[in-house]
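Anyone opening a protein record will find just a pair of labelled lines. The record below illustrates this layout.
***
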Amino acid sequence: MDAFIESLLEELNCEAVFTVPILGGIPVLESVAVTWIIMAALTLLAIVFVRNLKVENPGRIQLLLETALEGMFDFFEGCTGHHGRRYIPYLITVGLYIGMANLIGLFGFKPPTKDLNVTIALALLSIILIEVAGFRQKGIKGWMKAFAQPVAIILPINLMEIFIRPLSLCMRLFGNVLGAFVVMELIKNIIPAVVPVAFSLYFDIFDGLIQAYVFVFLTALFMGEALE
């Protein structure tokens, strides 16, 4: 059991892959290096799929992409409202990144979302964008007044939500990814043959995509509230 716990902690530890030789050496962690790989893959896929777009007689791939993109815009616009349309590209980008980050373990890489620093950064980015969206929509007076609505007595609770929401977003994502990893490692050690494949389909693929959906869905809902 001690050996299992030690191997588990070793898997969870995010080590430096290499050091950038400036300012005394800047260590680049595994989560950052894998994020660069995901960014390169998404950029390459974007170049491959969006080249040779046609206004007339589009191909099947273009029609599929346009249908999927339109569906995602309609879904997020339903959560954020018409004024939130300008922020939908961010929501789609974060959703694609978290989805790929959760699935990249299937290719032998350590998922970046297993690093708490990554989920904290994503949650902070989202909550900053949510508050900026509310500020731009209502102006400084309306934005500050919104914290005292619907009644002034709940002002402290609304202010606390600024800190609770990013904590909830980052811990929900990190906790679910970590929990799925621990369960899969236990299954692999207790029942090492055949059965882990079925569980892997759920924890490594289905659950990973669900967590990406939950993160961007909650972000869209919070943004919709800020834009009301």
